[in-house]
Design brief:
Blueprint (H helix, E strand, L loop, with lengths): L2 E2 L5 E6 L3 E6 L5 E6 L4 E6 L5 E8 L3 E8 L4 E5 L5 E6 L5 E6 L6 E6 L6 E3 L6 E5 L5 E6 L2 E8 L5 E2 L3 E5 L16 E2 L6 E2 L5 H4 L9 H8 L4
Antiparallel strand pairs: 1-2, 2-3, 3-4, 5-6, 6-7, 7-8, 9-10, 10-11, 11-12, 13-14, 14-15, 15-16, 15-17, 18-19
């Protein structure tokens, strides 16, 4: 689950689900930024690289959103009894989009950062994987078999349009909170998307049932 670092020369990623690490592009030295006994996933750097927003699966509070400082100190940002994930910081660093199931189903929310004093529900019929356009004027998300788009205005206050279908979404994704990493991206021009096209092998699963396997095991590996 790689994400770009504060500059274009470094990537940040998780390792073994419990460690967030950083590495120069083409380098072979990894720097550990943070470690936790719980699964943790990097999501978004602030503009100056002074903080990393990540999310964590906690056994008691479930999925939560945290902030990691330059000094390696982690502080909770959004921790509730519900699941929160997919945190994405806006290009200007003032707004955070994320997903929560506090309403009973997963919806996309936007709140001010870092204070969180303003909070707006952006999606209307469920949504996950929010993604801001490079110019910050639009927010995309996936839901209902479509990629949706919302127009954004941040001054003098945050406002969003009603969601509109951008295009149908037959492409692969993890689905709601189970997809810990982003499964699509938008080009710098805001007009093209990078998606994952899946074939029949990816869509289907096969379950094999083996009968009398213990007798076969004893035949292949005799105990005497």
């Amino acid at each position: 689950m790689p994400i770009w670092g504060p500059d274009a020369d470094r990537i940040t990623f998780w390792k073994d689900f419990e460690s967030i690490q950083s590495s120069l592009i083409g380098g072979d030295v990894m720097e550990e930024l943070y470690q936790s006994p719980n699964p943790i996933f990097p999501a978004s750097w602030t503009l100056g690289g002074e903080a990393l927003i990540f999310w964590e699966f906690h056994p008691e509070t479930r999925a939560d959103i945290w902030v990691l400082s330059e000094e390696g100190e982690a502080k909770p940002l959004i921790v509730t009894e519900f699941n929160e994930g997919f945190p994405r910081l806006s290009p200007d660093g003032r707004w955070l989009a994320y997903v929560s199931n506090e309403s009973g189903k997963y919806e996309v929310y936007v709140q001010s950062y870092p204070g969180g004093s303003e909070k707006v529900t952006v999606s209307t019929e469920g949504g996950f994987e929010p993604l801001r356009s490079p110019d910050g004027r639009e927010l995309f998300y996936r839901g209902g078999g479509s990629v949706m788009v919302v127009s954004i205005q941040t001054t003098p206050a945050f406002r969003s349009s009603r969601p509109a279908q951008l295009f149908e979404d037959p492409y692969l994704h993890g689905g709601e909170i189970s997809a810990v990493g982003g499964t699509y991206d938008v080009a710098p021009d805001g007009q093209h998307f990078l998606m994952i096209e899946g074939g029949e092998e990816e869509r289907g699963n096969q379950l094999n049932l083996v009968l009398n396997w213990f007798d076969e095991l004893k035949r292949l590996v005799p105990t005497e």
